[in-house]
Structures
1.
Amino acid sequence: PNVPNPFSGTTMLRFDIPKDVHVSLSVYDVRGRMVKNLVDQDLTPGTYNVGWDGRSTYGESVASGVYYYKIVAGSWTKTKTMVLVK
């Protein structure tokens, strides 16, 4: 899960990787449009913390509201909800 949630400023997304695998972690708006790709690389086993500061790929602050983050690690996929409050 991301902490804090809801958040204002920055939230941290924590995940564990049990084996070497390619990981993608992206943030989407409620319309399903990608807001920002936070991770897109091969990772080794371990625990990772990735921050999102409420900015898009282009560095623009996004609006308050519900956002989704999706992590794909090999064949495993998980989508969770987070709320940005300004």
2.
Amino acid sequence: MKAARSAGWWAKRIAEGIGLAEHAYQDALAYAQERRQGSAAGVPNTEMAPIIMHPDVRRMLIDMKAKIAAARALGLTNAVALDVARHGRDEATRKRAEAEAALLTPLSKAYGSDISVEVASEALQVHGGMGFIEETGAAQHYRDARITPIYEGTNGIQALDLVGRKLLMNEGEVVRTFLAGLQEIVANVPTEANSPFGTTARCLGQGMADLVECSLWLGKKLAENPSAALAGATSYARMFSLVAGGTLLARGALSAIRKGDNAAETQTLLARHFAETQVASSSGLKHAVYHSADTVLGEKADAILQ
């Protein structure tokens, strides 16, 4: 019964942030389609253009949708692992799923709630000044979303759990197995110059290399200087979530293409956008993992806080 409550609680926690983000996105999309301001290519000079035609508004909306899709992919993968951990056909299967669920829980919880705040904030930006008018609901979405990274001890605690406990599970075998599965997916992403995936494979490949490198480095650093390792935990958790989420989006797009799904083109573009704009930040996050302790810990850091 305790395990069932735990699984149900985490499923609810994982879904809450994603649901709030989706609501904020849908409202922003509708507003952008209706609100007219400024000029845009293809619109007569005598008319105001719907703001959805402005490049930066389109960028924000697609960023929002891609982040939600990645968070949903992480959350659903986590949910499947939780289900198999309880209902798998044999003990070995259940134990493998339980370990994967334990690894994914801090990732899906933290990333899903972080992007909930980010998406709600971007939705406010799309609404402009109207976002602060209560009847639009945009400000309420942000207030509702802002609590989600604080539940259960804040997302910083999730990052510490990921690095301090989950990274070392079964002497690192759980992380190695999961990353190996992601690497198999990346190997199947087309690399041709004219591929609709663009540079997805390259971005995911670089992100995967950065993630593997950081995982090994943190494993060693935990034994030498735990505080230094934990100083970069949040950056590592973000990197892990981006690489895993982006790879799962690519897997979904590849599956849709194989099945001839009508949504294949949209899924491919979302996977490409996420890889090229979000996963591409992995190198900066790797630098933060390695060097956060230099400015966060010690007497010099104490002086910053005075």
3.
Amino acid sequence: MSRLRILPRLLLLLLLATGLLISCDRVVNDDGPSNVETNLISPENSSTNYSSEVTLEWEPVDEALEYDVMLSEQSNFQSLIIDTTVDQPTLETPTLDPDKTYFWKVRPVTEDAPSKWSSTWEFTIASSQNEPVSGSFVQVQNSDFIVDDSVFRFVGTNAYYLPNYEKINSSVVDRALDLFEDTGVNVVRMWGFYDGYDCGYSKNDPTENVIQTAPGEYSEEALQDLDSVIAKGKERGIRFIIPFINYWDQLGGVCQYNTWAGASDPSTNMEFFLTNSQTQTWYKNYISMLLNRTNTVTGVAYKDEPAIMAWQIMNEGRNSGEDATILRDWYQEIAQYIKSMDPNHLISTGEEGFDEGTPPVYSADQYSNTYTLRANEGTSYVLNTAIPEIDFGNAHWYPSEYGFGSTVDEDMRRAQVAWLEDHQAIAEQVGKPFIVGEYGFPGWSDDRVSTIYSELYAHVEEIELDGNLLWQLVADGTKCWEFGGNICYPGGREDTELYNDYRNHVMNMR
């Protein structure tokens, strides 16, 4: 035996004796890396993802004990966001930045050797930034909202206070609109009215930004603040849903019109409001004024403004104890009046979605409390949504206010699913989209809010709801503690977890 063949054996014995040669589960054999390889599945190569959290998925490999995973913003993987090993063929990423491209690859780890890396795939997280609103109006076609021949689904927010705060503190408005744009919100619902000084907030604070100071008399300064908010939103790619009046006393509404007309009990007295010729004339005059007004910032008449998505006839209208056909007929009359001047815009009622007599189209067995289906509030979602001039169904969702308690239990969960599906189906039966115009759970960011919202988001995405509007996303402490189900970010309570879930829902729907 030659010395050349003896030396390697002596070296091996020496290494074993000194403990420098150790055994391990993953041994590099003489043949190099194993030929075992996996194929990537999702997200597809060169795809665009609309959620900032992505689930990576690849084909399982029988021989694999685990998988090495890398994710980077660089195709050479020099700087890694993910460098980990998992035992399942799937991995959820951390929150990724919008408007960036990411690269990823996976390799199986077998008992014998490290395997080959998969091919490298890339995906892009969509930018949350909106393009400024162009000349296209939102339309309805085959039960969908349509913009430029594409289906338009959205998650937005209510921000009723914006025109008022344009006078009080315009920086509040700017912070709110900046947050909405950064979040990807492209629909905002706000009040297009503020009536008088006898009801609501202005009764105690006459410095509020009242638009209609007396019947038929309108503050140009207040209207210019409304002009400004619409113009600012338009530049940020935001469209507005705008009610003309409130059923409730806040910002005047029915109470103010009734007071002007001499009603002895003006607050929420819908019967007086609907039957009094003066209140109806003043209300129609207000609608006509606003539709025909030219925005002093954009130079566009309101009736020609594509940044307005829709008009709503009344916020949460009711006619308690009366036949629902009375309110139905009034909605139709007002919708026809609006369309006679403005054929461009969509119209909805602005209602809560209540009904009368528990119509059989509802899955009543899924509601532990059927108050909303037999509310005796003189309004019927079924009847109202069928009005030809009403373009989409609208309902609100406040489970703790609608008889389902303050605990997020199975009864509330079932009711939430049924509420969404029933109202969507009723609208689709008459060829119309459906939106949740307000929703909220007044837990002020506690775990119940997180639970009910996350389950609502998941089901909305599953059934491809046309749109929903939180009450409400706020950028600072200005409206943070107001009743509803507010998400405060980045100021106020800084509801970071709630905000991140909401933002992901925005992007998923878009």
